[in-house]
Amino acid sequence: MSTRLDTALQKHPEHEEGIRLLAERDPSGKLKYLDWGAKILVSGQALASEVADVLDLYHRFAGRALEPPPGRRRLLKRNERVHPDIHTYAPGDLAKLRDLLVKMRRAADKKRRKRERLYKIDGAVEADTVYDSDDLIVRHIKNKQASVHYGLNTKWCIAMLRDGYFEEYEAHNATFFFFERKTPIGNEYDKVALMIPRSSDHRDRGPTAFTTLDQPVDMLNLAHVHGPRVFDIFRQVWECSMRYPGSTLFQVYSGTASEEQLQYSIATGKNLDFYETNALLESVCCNDAAPWPMLQKIERNAYALSIAAGKRKSRQRYRGYRMSLVEQRAKELVRVTAALAIHPRTPPDERERLVKELRRRHVRVDAIRRVKDGSRVAIAYDNRRPIGGRRGRLFRRQRFTVKSLRERAAMFDRTAKRMRKKAKTLERKLAAKKRRKEKALKAKTKRGTR
Known about the structure:
It is a single chain. By secondary structure, the protein is an alpha+beta fold. The protein folds into 3 domains: about 1-120, no CATH class; about 125-245, no CATH class; about 255-380, no CATH class. The chain is built from 17 helices and 8 strands. A 6-stranded antiparallel beta sheet has the order 1-2-3-4-5-6, with helices on both faces. The chain has a two-stranded antiparallel ribbon with strand order 7-8. Strand 1 and strand 2 form a beta hairpin. Helix 2 (about 15-25) runs antiparallel to helix 3 and helix 13 (about 290-310) runs antiparallel to helix 14.
């Protein structure tokens, strides 16, 4: 390396200060770019510090190409790829090379910031230590942020930041405890997640433990790994789980949440899918502690929240259903309206308006009631069955105007004209077929007489 520096100083002694700066900042560590940097410095295209900045970017992006914007495909141009050999760039190409490298740095920084936002944990990490020794620590995981933080490098679904699996378990009143080795040895037992169900729907399953590969294990396997102390730890974990109050979502789904818990559940329910969002809105409206301003806001924004939740998930999930997603949304939001109609905090004038809306949707208002749908409170009602069927109901309840009657008559005229045209075409086909049969019969008769 000193030979390259001495050679460059002998060739260009008048630029000794700049060459030494390039040697100090050479990103390769072997003075690999010193000859090219000295050539650019001697040409007067840039100062030594500017050349050093270009070399830093070149060493980072050498051999790579400028990525197209997301969602677009295009052929790369010659000047959109960084050549792996820096000596192919003449001093006059410095400006173009610098512009390309700057573009690539901006694209990489934008991609990095997007990735950081994707995995950024918002909010405090809430976890309590239940057991602590020289080689093992057991934590009680109290929120999703803690599950994502301490579940790093595992395949647990509750450790996925952008999915609602932790909220789903939390809604069923399950508690989680993470076993973690303080000094990992590189196997799947470095971290173990223990789930203790407390809901009546899942209590028969019993506690379940999962390794980092998301494989279920029992207490005997854990005892084989961590020794018989696992049973004492399990007793502490069980007592902690039984003392811990129900989660916010569990209180909401049970219909016993406070106003603060309802506000928190709405604010943190942004990652739920379509069905979970509708279930949450319905359950919030079934809590007597919900004030009318909150209920009014839910009524006003329920459709927009449901649409946004449906767009967050892939359409593949909704394929195969007989009922379209739009119809399903409308049907689910009727339950929200029904819950508001029987809520004790709904003002009388608003209740009258909601009852009219429900009757317009053919809901029996006197049959609306709160029921337990699994582990959550929900709304049940009966549909009215008007005489005459669906078509009779539509025509009976629709009020026609002169303009609508004329438009309907014109539509019927167009339909009749199209049907008459089809009838004439069918008549011509049948007549041609009859003529062919008669002609064939005459030919056959003529051959028989001969």
